[in-house]
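Q: what does this look like with heme C bound?
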Amino acid sequence: MIARRKNLIGILLTLSVLTTGAWAQTTDQEAHLAIENPADLSKDEARQHYRSLTRRMERGYAAAQLDLILNYQNWPLFNDAPYISATHGQRYVNSYANRLAHNYATLQEGEVLPVGSVLAKDSMTVTDEGKVYPGAMFVMEKLPAGTNPDTADWRYVMVMPDGSLFGDTMGFRAGAVAYCHECHEAVADRDYTFYVPEEFRVVE
Ligand code: HEC
């Protein structure tokens, strides 16, 4: 895990220096390098910041042309306010699930989500200096049985806020997002989903 992180940081450094030279900005926006000082927001503040960004986020991710997440902002939302996700780079995140994933909230041990279920977690960065900007989008898609036994038929995709694809376990730079499933394996008994932290759940 640590070695992978280092690799990732190395790749990002190289990429950002090569492509833009704007190293600070690029790494800041990278979802899996934790930001150092996330602001401590109330639920209301978090909601307000999110509202101010939603259009921009939608446009950004849409540039990825990933049909999978078209209109995700109209899907059921399972948290009552954006919450800090330590495992997704200390960003404020939301947990959306498409309608096919009807049992995402109520999944019992050993049950699985239907094929075609898509879970979308968008994110925003809020620093303690009050800077707010869109973060990466994290996606899980349940594939037909047998498609990819290595990941229990889950596909993981990470999209950068500008719509560029960071990685897709079923395609582009699959290795860059292999660590997603490694962590999600911890909740294999809940079909590899962690669900929302208790204090932010809309559905218990
Ligand atoms: C170190 C552990 C860890 C890693 C690595 C990780 N996740 Fe997660 N993921 C979690 C946890 C914990 C949650 C639930 C809490 C939260 O929302 O942060 C979660 C939630 C999610 C959800 C909402 C569905 C659910 O599990 O309830 C999606 C979608 C998701 N992650 C996608 C990804 C993708 C894509 C990657 C890789 C780019 C990734 N995750 C990497 C731990 C991880």
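The mean pLDDT is 85. The pocket of heme C is lined by residues 85, 87-88, 93, 95, 119, 121, 138-140, 156, 158, 177, 179-180, 183-184, 193-195 (CB under 6 Å).
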